[in-house]
Amino acid sequence: MEKSDLLNSLCLEIQNIESDLTVMQDQMNSMTSKLGGIKKVFTLIKEEDERMAKEITKDSKKVIQLKNGKANMPYKEIVDLEAFGIPKDALIDFNGIPQLSWNKDDTCFEGDLILPGDYKGTLIYQENLNSREFTRDVHILINADPRTLWVDKDPPLEGPYYKTNKDYLSKIFNNRRLLGASVRGKSHAQRGTFRDDDFSIQTWDNGWILQVVSDGAGSAIYSREGSRMACQSVVDNISTDENREKIQRIEDLIVSLNSPIESNIQRENDGIDLNRRSEICSDQSMVVENTLAKDSIDQSIISEFVADQYDIVEGALVEGDTDQTEVIKDTLTEDYISQNKIAVDLPEETIVDTEEIKRKKLSTLIHELTVQAAFSSLKKIETFAKENNKTTIKNFSSTLLFTLSKEFDFGTAVISFSIGDGAIGVVTEKEGKLLMKPDGGEYSGQTYFITSKELFQNKDIYDRSKFWLFKDRVKSLMLMTDGISDPKFGTEKNLEDSNYWMKLWGELEPVIKQDPLNKEDVFEWLEFYEVGEYDDRTLVILY
To answer: Taking a C-beta distance cutoff of 8 angstroms, is the pair 275, 290 a contact?
Structure first.
């Protein structure tokens, strides 16, 4: 088969699969929307039915049935006595239900309900002290607190890739605290399965801070190990001498761009557009094209990229046809270069570093640092899966969010990178801000994982790198898995709403700013109860 025919055939197959996936996604979105609407209607009807006291017949006797209560929740229901034939100004006495009392001033039943069950009390009334007494039976159903119905089963000690149900790390660095905490979700506790989330924190003497979180996919059998490897790989990769030197170059550029002479980078709490890689930059009459020659690109990245692409078509090659093999590899290499045109560090004697050139250098370095770190996680998981005969890397699917940050006298620099859902956000003196674009849908469902190899075969991978410089004092920089972001924000639109971030910080601040900090209080906050939200919860926060 000719190379062109092979590529055309593969291209057509890819288009067909993508088309099918688009149709399936549209159908899923439609079904999710319909389900949400049905649930809302059901809830409204149910609440309307339960909201007001009503007269029903029990055991051939008419009784006043109050709206249902919930154990461990305060209860109050205003009752229109006249609707039950009781004079408005009647003298009332109520007994028989210790958890409930009658408030004559507000004409309501109220109390702190504790024990679930079906209770019956007696309402005694008379028009005045000298008149005859009448009685009415009052019934109330107190539902059990759903939180008490959950069980907490430990996962098997002998299970592969054992992970504790909780994890915690707290340290002081440069007069700020770094806190990482993770708890197993109720759904895992109910089934006796492992916590799938993980996190890492790393600091260096030069002031840079690395925060990482990863959420193992619930559908992937070994995702708990995938999330651990993803976090550790990022730490290991960025900690290499090569990348430490790259971080220093990034810092030098940030400082240079924020000198009194070159200060255009200091836009109010803004981010630099890192995705203008193929623009032309000019300095007076000098023009520099951001195109890399083949020998200028990191050959290790090219070879890994080509190897991954080559695996896709390898099965279609004629065995032993080395010429065809090399042709395809060369084509893939050229394709990689053409897709990844980024700013390049030219020799200093060639051009004078203008602000625009410095910004492009900064963009290039940040892209290289973040994408390579993420790619190292993929390769580590891939190698581990092969060496341990785990069939496929999909068994280790996990999200990956990380930030690199440093506080300068002119502001706080934050580099962020994300694959998957969850959230990265910052709270300053003035606002809260989302620092990533989640991969999830409007409400729930689909997302990408670090094991989604196709992400690294597309130049859009660079769009996942973000750079921000905050002039206002940063109160907190937080990364969280969707076990927190989903119940606290609900939708992607809310993630972009400053008020939601400020509210979340308002909840967290009194818990994590205690002196001394109490680990159990942090865990208690992470285990907040929200109906329908039972996933693992992980938070890494700098404050």
So the answer is: no
Residue ranges of domains in the chain, CATH in brackets: 59-149 (2.60.40.10), 166-274+359-542 (3.60.40.10)
d(CA 522, CA 505): 13
| Angstrom distance (rounded) from CA 410 to CA 256 | 12
pLDDT digits (tens, 9 = 90+) for 303-317: 444 444 444 334 333
DSSP for 97-118, please give it: -TT-EEETTTTEEEEE--S-EE
State how beta strands 74-78 and 117-126 pair. unpaired
Cβ–Cβ < 8 Å for 451, 398: yes
- How far is residue 88 CA from its own chain's centroid? 54
Type of residue at 121: G
Q: What whole-number distance in Å separates Cα of residue 438 and Cα of residue 142?
A: 40
Residue 469: what pLDDT? 96
Q: How many residues does the chain have?
A: 543
Rounded to two decimals, the pTM is 0.68
Instruction: Give the pLDDT mean for 64-84.
Output: 91
Phi-psi region of 422 (alpha: psi -120 to 50; beta: other; left: phi over 0): left
Residue-level pLDDT at 266: 39
Q: The tokens of 381 are what?
A: 């998981």
Helix (H) or strand (E) holding 385: helix 355-387
The two three-digit tokens of residue 245, written as one number: 């030197």
The pLDDT > 90 percentage for the chain reads 56
What are the two backbone dihedrals, phi and then psi, of residue 237, each rounded to the nearest 5 degrees? -65, -45
Phi–psi pair at 156, nearest 5 degrees: -65, 135
Angstrom distance (rounded) from CA 343 to CA 37? 49
Side-chain half-sphere CA neighbours of 439 within 13 A: 22
**CA nearest neighbour of 180 among 166, 165, 170:** 170
* CA dist., res. 443 & res. 36, Å (int): 10
Considering only CA atoms, which of 115, 117, 136, 11 is closest in space to residue 72? 115
CA distance 425 to 410: 20
* Distance from the first to the final alpha carbon of the chain: 60
| DSSP class of 490 | -
The 197-203 sheet, strands edge to edge: 197-203, 209-215, 400-408, 411-419, 465-470, 270-272
Q: Report the interhelical angle of 223-238 vs 355-387 (nearest 10°).
A: 140
Q: Which of 424, 417, 418 is nearest to 366 (CA)?
A: 417
3-state DSSP of 253-303: HHHHHCCCCCCCCCCCCEEECCCCCCCEEEECCEEEECCCCHHHCCHHHHH
Three-state secondary structure call for residue 35:
helix
Q: Which helix (H) or strand (E) holds 34?
A: helix 3-51
DSSP 8-state secondary structure symbol assigned to residue 155: P
Using alpha carbons, select from 270, 287, 271, 267 the residue that is nearest to residue 279.
287
Question: At what angle are helices 482-489 and 498-512 packed, to 10 degrees?
Answer: 120
CA distances from 243 to 237, 348, 368, 370, 381 (A): 7, 21, 9, 10, 21
For tokens 């769009």, the residue is: 463
In terms of Cβ atoms closer than 10 Å to its own Cβ (0-12, 13-18, 19+), residue 471 is middle
